[in-house]
Amino acid sequence: MATTPNAIITPQSIKTANAICTAAKTTLNDATNAVLLLAAQTNGAILYGLKATPRATVTATQLQLYRSPDAGTTLYLIDSVLMAAHTIANTTEAATTDFGYSETLPLRLSSVDALYVGAAVALAGGIVFDAQFELL
According to the model, what pLDDT value does residue 136 have? Predict the structure, then answer.
């Protein structure tokens, strides 16, 4: 939807995005092993939730969120959380780690922003990132 100067832009639709990290992202200043979560949107977006869930037994690991204004050429670390060690079994609940974004504490994205994620420890089964956002 094209915008008009001085016009109020309201959310247009609710969307979800997912990414799976399997390789360790141990460097914080480049795009190595970062995975695209959410590509730039025409009028920007508002991120209302971001959670991560391991698909296999995991040791404690840092989860990372990056913003890129140039389609992944440059990544800026903007947030990180610690995923606790957890053993996946048929009798345990998969532990979900929340980044803390919500409707009252959202992350606003411009029309050129893309979000990338990473995990500091490799996990063959992967860590699934799940985002909820609205397009503007």
Answer: 84
